[in-house]
TrEMBL record:
Pathway participation: Cofactor biosynthesis; tetrahydrofolate biosynthesis; 2-amino-4-hydroxy-6-hydroxymethyl-7,8-dihydropteridine diphosphate from 7,8-dihydroneopterin triphosphate: step 4/4
EC number of this enzyme: 2.7.6.3
Catalysed reactions listed for this entry: 6-hydroxymethyl-7,8-dihydropterin + ATP = (7,8-dihydropterin-6-yl)methyl diphosphate + AMP + H(+)
Main EC class the enzyme belongs to: transferase
Lineage: Bacteria, Bacillati, Actinomycetota, Actinomycetes, Kitasatosporales
SUPFAM superfamilies in the cross-refs: 6-hydroxymethyl-7,8-dihydropterin pyrophosphokinase, HPPK
Chain's gene name: folK
InterPro entries: Hppk (IPR000550), Hppk_sf (IPR035907)
GO BP terms in the entry: folic acid biosynthetic process; tetrahydrofolate biosynthetic process
Pfam families registered for this protein in UniProt: HPPK (PF01288)
Superkingdom, taxonomy of origin: Bacteria
GO molecular function: 2-amino-4-hydroxy-6-hydroxymethyldihydropteridine diphosphokinase activity; ATP binding; kinase activity
Protein name: 2-amino-4-hydroxy-6-hydroxymethyldihydropteridine diphosphokinase
Keyword annotations from UniProtKB, A to Z: ATP-binding, Folate biosynthesis, Kinase, Nucleotide-binding, Transferase
Domain 7,8-dihydro-6-hydroxymethylpterin-pyrophosphokinase: 120-131
């Protein structure tokens, strides 16, 4: 006899709960690769980018697998000369965090570096964007995947290409081709600077 069938306190688990638990198990046991873009154009830009890499590594369920070279870049999307130049880099991570939790962590790291949100594309101590999360494609404005501007930003594609020349931007094509289609102006690889991969 089924031992539960005579126990009135044991309710069947609703299918929706089983689905959620299964989905969580899949995430927990199955780390995903994600690409994070880092940018800074205020304060000590290199120190801030390194701090962000270290803070990401300090996140439970997240490992930084690669950090790109550092690029000095002209501010994109704003009046030329209206802001200081950026330092940009990308980090490739493996994580068991689902996308929404990764975004929360990214925003907490920005806040730790005193990021102030006022104007769109305004100058900032630190910007941490999720460029891509596994092959996920989503139009959710809270978390659009891949990042809605990634395909048109050489400051994202060039460092990503450096660490993964075969990379694909889900729904957009190869990073190599997307990068070739953009003028590489306003981007200088800073050979004299380096971000450390946390140990
Ligand atoms: N892939 C993504 N990565 C980070 N934030 C995202 C993403 N998709 C949507 N967002 C949303 O965008 C909002 C604004 O982000 P943020 O202030 O960093 O924009 P921004 O850096 O000024 O511009 P951009 O998003 O074009 O880089 C965030 O609150 C977040 O919810
Ligand atoms: N060069 C450069 N330009 C930008 C950057 C950035 O990181 N680098 N970030 C922006 C908003 O996320 C807007 N413009």
């Amino acid at each position: 006899m089924n031992p539960n069938s005579s126990d009135p306190t044991v309710q069947p688990v609703p299918a929706s709960v089983v689905e959620q638990v299964d989905a969580a198990d899949v995430t927990l046991s199955n780390p995903k690769t994600a690409v994070i873009s880092l940018g800074s154009n205020l304060g000590n830009r290199l120190e801030t980018l390194q701090g962000a890499v270290d803070a990401l590594e300090d996140t439970p369920g997240l490992r930084v697998k690669a950090v790109s070279p550092v690029y000095e870049t002209e501010p994109w999307g704003v009046e030329p000369g209206s802001q200081p130049s950026y330092f940009n880099a990308v980090a490739v991570i493996r994580t068991t965090l689902p996308p929404g939790s990764l975004l929360e962590r990214a925003q907490a790291v920005e806040e730790a570096f005193h990021r102030v949100r006022d104007e769109r594309w305004g100058p900032r101590t630190l910007d941490v964007d999720i460029v891509a999360y596994a092959g996920v494609v989503s139009a959710d404005p809270e978390l659009t995947l891949p990042h809605p501007h990634a395909h048109e930003r050489a400051f994202v594609l060039a460092p990503w290409h450096d660490v993964d020349p075969e990379a694909q931007l889900p729904g957009q094509g190869s990073v190599d081709e997307l990068l070739s289609a953009l003028a590489g102006d306003g981007l200088t690889r800073r050979e004299d600077l380096e971000l450390r991969l946390p140990e």
